Amino acid sequence: MEKNKNNPQNNNPPVNEPIDGSTGSPLKEIEEKLIKCEKEKEEYLNGWKRAKADSINQQKDELKRMEEIMKFANADIIKDLLLVLDSFELSLLATKDPEAKNSSTSSLREGIEIIYSQLEKILNKQGLEKIKALGEKFDPALHEAMLQEESDKESGTILEEMVKGWKLNGKVIRPTKVRIAK
């Protein structure tokens, strides 16, 4: 018995006719749709991979930024401790009288030297280092010129270190105040 195309009981399209009513083969259309889906899948997968890589890179950058913040978080405390270090140094200079053979002055000096040394070691352990100045060429990134005077030394040579300069983890936190040659 032959089926009529107009028969309402026959709802399935013929195998050799396209599903969407176009004139191409249904198998070819399915293959094209599959190829299109594969391309979309690759695009989405690549997009996801890029987003994940961006997220990982952002996390790494954030960690580096936090490490940098942590590195200099103590800068204010260390700057305050520098005043103590300066005071110790001044007391050491005041007790450096070669004619004083008094044992109390001598033991006071020894005590101050020990305290100064301990404080300096603590600060060095935190990344603090002195800026070399005396006899060096003036560098505005490291030194602050307080006075300039005539000298037989080359112009710009540091003649005196008036206040010590310091770096914290390689960054200048206080420039050395100096007297330089004209």
Which short descriptors sum up this protein?
182 residues, alpha+beta, Nucleotide Exchange Factor Grpe, Chain A, domain 2, 3-stranded mixed β-sheet, 6 strands, disordered N terminus
Structural commentary:
The chain is an alpha+beta fold and 182 residues long. The protein has a domain at 128-182: Head domain of nucleotide exchange factor GrpE (Nucleotide Exchange Factor Grpe, Chain A, domain 2), CATH 2.30.22. It has three helices and six strands; from the N terminus they run αααββββββ. The strands form two sheets. A three-stranded antiparallel beta sheet has the order 1-4-5. A three-stranded mixed beta sheet has the order 2-6-3, with no helix packed on it. α2 packs antiparallel against α3 (103-125). The protein is elongated and about 115 Å long.
